[in-house]
Automatic annotation (TrEMBL):
Name of this chain's protein: Uncharacterized protein
Naturally occurring in which organism (per UniProt): Bifidobacterium mongoliense DSM 21395
Length: 68
């Protein structure tokens, strides 16, 4: 799962969508609440990529540094 290299770069971030939160937000705050709840405000997933071998990780590998 992990590689032996210790240099990673941030590949990107993705928003996490939630149908349940969108429905609850819509019931409580109307259409704007549905959009805000469904988009999962504050919920992002960061992907890391090894700078040497190209493996991807969902968590920063222990002892690694972010370069570039």
């Amino acid at each position: 799962m992990f590689c032996s290299h210790r240099e990673v770069i941030v590949a990107g971030q993705k928003k996490k969508l939630s149908l349940t939160k969108g429905i609850v937000g819509g019931l409580v705050l109307g259409p704007l609440g549905a959009v805000a709840g469904g988009a999962g405000l504050g919920k992002t997933k960061t992907q890391f990529v090894c700078n040497k071998c190209g493996k991807t990780f969902s968590k920063l590998p222990h002892g690694s540094t972010i370069v570039g």
